[in-house]
């Protein structure tokens, strides 16, 4: 992409620079020069007086009258420039400036006709030399615009050159020829000087642009730093709440057990612990998701996505039948399936949380756009609604308009922030229509998939896997390779509760050296392990030594590549914090071969 866009951008930037330089050159050319005008006018009066005395009073008066008119025009009626400039207005202003400059210098140049004395060779030479001197002195101040300056030089010298070649003495003719050479030389000098001026203006504009960019970058960096500080301060606040709840409930549970509390009381405390753990896990997952989005670690892979199965699956996951779907069967969009599912899941979750009563509707309808067919997807709820002045804020980090009390059961204010980031990656615009007490409608449009794009089959709905009816075989042997002692102890406690026999080691080398692989039914391998071998290398060695061993990789950093590797090798991949139901299902599958023996 970069190789194709760069050549198109560079000329545009150069054209913009050229336009700015031309505007600045024109501004410099018409700036007021009062003292210079006065000095030039007084010199012209002296020239008129000299030739009035030596040649003709009437001709001198005509010439100085012309000089007076153009001096008044330039001094008291300056050219007005448009603000701001456009390419067309700049061209018009340049033409106007060139005409005004030509009139100015033509009035001076007419001295070569009005003050030319055919009978006096000395006066001819004096006039020619004076006009050449006027050219040398004024050529670099009359204008900085090359066409205007070159026209001014020509109109200043042409009358005396033509008159000298026609009516002058041989000496005057020679001076006229010199005037032709002077004209050509001045054209070249003026062009070179003007180009140097344009280069200097370009450097100054570039320096100004760089300075403005640096200041803008500094302001953006300061704003980003302030946003990060606010984000992490809010994250720190919300993370500490479930941590504090877990600590307090753990102490309550300890005292209840010490005092022999009744089972219902203990169960209530355990349930509170589970809720705090779920809140902590949910916030941690959302923070991790935001980090992955901003780091762009999951590249987009647009495919044809059938919307009806996706929306129906999200409605089933929401539970209790509150979410309904209205979607045409032929609605197939072109998008990244994973990112689209995350956007819709967050919107549905947000709608359910803030709709205490009533239903949530997932609606899809067709749209016609200039770029082709599209699908409009909307998540409608009848919840508390959002005021107009707060609708932009709801997409911010840790913003919860309808949860002032910060009830953790209603989330942490990151769901819509994730939607905003994902939408930016997908190139879609999420709109919001809402009013207090009248619910909210979040919507966006997706391009329709090409007619020949293959539509992958929908993923099968997840079935409940964990329950008392599917008990594990007592004595199931499980290898646990985990270097974190707290995590290892927790895994052991849960496995022992299930009457599973854990074999715990802190490193891959220790497990390979001490574990009896023949007696093992499953292996839980943390990926990040101390020593030369990580969990993946350990899993490969275990599989070679015992192909029937059920292996699960365990890590908080299981990405798409790790998941794909595990699928190819026939392993499981469990993301920390591991859910008991997921672990239970892995062990159920591990005991199936043993049950059949």
Automatic annotation (TrEMBL):
The chain crosses the membrane at residues 36-54, 60-77, 125-146, 151-168. It is an enzyme of class 2 (transferase). It catalyses: ATP + protein L-histidine = ADP + protein N-phospho-L-histidine. The lineage of its organism: Bacteria, Pseudomonadati, Pseudomonadota, Betaproteobacteria, Burkholderiales. CDD domains: HisKA, REC. Pfam families: HATPase_c, HisKA, Response_reg. Residues 477-591 form the Response regulatory domain. Keywords: Kinase, Membrane, Phosphoprotein, Transferase, Transmembrane, Transmembrane helix. One of its GO terms (molecular function) is histidine phosphotransfer kinase activity. GO terms for cellular component: plasma membrane. InterPro entries: CheY-like_superfamily (IPR011006), HATPase_C_sf (IPR036890), HATPase_dom (IPR003594), His_kinase_dom (IPR005467), HisK_dim/P_dom (IPR003661), HisK_dim/P_sf (IPR036097), Sig_transdc_His_kin-like_C (IPR004358), Sig_transdc_resp-reg_receiver (IPR001789). SUPFAM superfamilies: ATPase domain of HSP90 chaperone/DNA topoisomerase II/histidine kinase (SSF55874), CheY-like (SSF52172), Homodimeric domain of signal transducing histidine kinase (SSF47384). This is histidine kinase. The modification 4-aspartylphosphate is found at residue 526. Its EC number is 2.7.13.3. Residues 234-450 form the Histidine kinase domain.
